[in-house]
Design brief:
Blueprint: H1 7-27, H2 38-58, H3 65-79
């Protein structure tokens, strides 16, 4: 069975990884967003991290074939 991971799952995972990477850079005093003013950069970084974390946590991210098949079954049940 060659089930495909949804594009939404991939996008949310990439955004979460970028947010976490951005947060690590901010912790070490780097400014990946290149915004004047350290406070603004830290606030934007924090908001980005919180939003990406919340989206990744809230959505059902199915990576395994069994999870993808389970999502299909759940969708069929909900349609009936």
């Amino acid at each position: 069975m060659s089930e495909k991971i949804s594009s939404g799952t991939i996008a949310r995972t990439i955004i979460l990884i970028l947010a976490l990477f951005n947060q690590v850079l901010a912790m070490f005093g780097k400014s990946p967003l290149d915004i004047a003013g350290e406070d603004i950069s830290n606030v934007v970084s924090l908001i980005f991290t919180i939003a990406a974390s919340a989206a990744a946590w809230w959505k059902n991210n199915s990576f395994t074939a069994a999870a993808i098949e389970g999502d299909k079954m759940m969708k069929r049940i909900k349609e009936n």
